[in-house]
Amino acid sequence: MLNFSSVLTLLVLLFVSPNVSAIDKVFPGNAKDVDIIIKSSISDDDDTICKSLVQTQGYACEEHKVTTKDGYILSVQRIPVGRSGKTASKPPVLLQHGLLVDAAAWLLNTPDESLGFILADNGFDVWLANTRGTKYSRGHTSLSSNDSAYWEWSWDELVQYDLSALVQYVQYKTGQKLHYVGHSLGTLIALAAFSEQGKLINMFKSAALLSPIAHLNQIPSQLTKEAAQLHIAEELYSLGYRQFPPGWDVLGPILEKICNEPDTNCSELMTALTGELLKHEPQPTATKNIIHLSQMIRTGTIAMYDYGSEDENKEHYGQSDPPAYNMKNIPKELPLFLGYGGQDMLADANDVKALLNDLKDHDNGELVEVYSEEYAHADFVLGVNASQVVYDPMISFFDFHSS
Prior knowledge:
Blueprint: H1 4-14, H2 31-38, H3 49-54, E1 62-67, E2 72-79, E3 92-96, H4 115-121, E4 125-129, E5 139-140, H5 155-174, E6 178-183, H6 185-196, E7 204-210, H7 222-229, H8 232-238, E8 243-244, H9 248-259, E9 285-286, H10 287-299, H11 310-317, E10 336-341, H12 349-358, E11 367-372, H13 379-382, H14 386-400
Parallel strand pairs: 3-4, 3-6, 6-7, 7-10, 10-11
Antiparallel strand pairs: 1-2, 2-4, 2-5, 8-9
Helix pairs in contact: 1-9, 2-5, 5-6, 7-10, 8-10
Domain Partial AB-hydrolase lipase: 52-109
Protein name: Lipase
Pfam family, one: Abhydro_lipase
């Protein structure tokens, strides 16, 4: 039987990992955006991912700060060389983590088992992203993370601002097109961006999507579905909790209520993740982000944030319904690598198959699938055999598309 604190932690880890205008392009890519990115700097702070997780393993590491167009200051780590000390001979790879974790997730296993180190040892120039609101990306040009306005965003803003800033920064620093690796929420923001076919699409060589999140209406986690159906995130937001998760004193009674719902088995969560993440405190996100994901679970749509009324949606988007992200618009010539598992309780295999159906017109050889019946959601990042099951074929895929 799981203890209550473990269930709480599993819930927040499982709950898929300025206003947006529909008129704006996802990747504006104008000179002003680039100027903001170029002004970013390298950090020398003592408390960093580089010093705590990378340099301790014998790797060179750089800490960078990237400022988004809407003022969020993102922490980015660069591993420019592998253990051999040879300068990277292959293109840059940007790694984007999922929900309620940060870039540390790519580095928690041994160097032979962690994707960040494996890519560096294989000659790639590795860049590790940290989403706004996580421990090392809590800066802003005018707001404090204690301000409620700081947390007024969903994954729409991660598409429009964070990914745009990060890709432009890496391309500017390296002068090369890049490969992309996303896990969970990191796949959703990439897919949404690709579907808009903005200017930055031409900066990608390929993308690897691990536990891809797009369609969510067949999600098998009953606990997660109950939380979405009960509008838990919306309730928290209405009570003034803009940061998720709130304190356990707030979330605990809510989760207890969900676990007491008929046919809801909280012990099912132990099969959804490997235990390693339980050693690390969940990184915060915006409650509005959780609301947005809950909307996807309830409606089965892949669309921008729904403000809940036709008038508010018209105010933000110029139409009564939120604009959709059409997965079928993803360029068929963009090389994609999809890894998914049979035990994943978030990126359900049937939902992934629906995504693959959206991509069925992809050019021959430009869409690669790796399926593991035994893999759960976090195994694609923390599985001790992921190097053989997922990373080896992914690196071969990157090598093929590196010219």
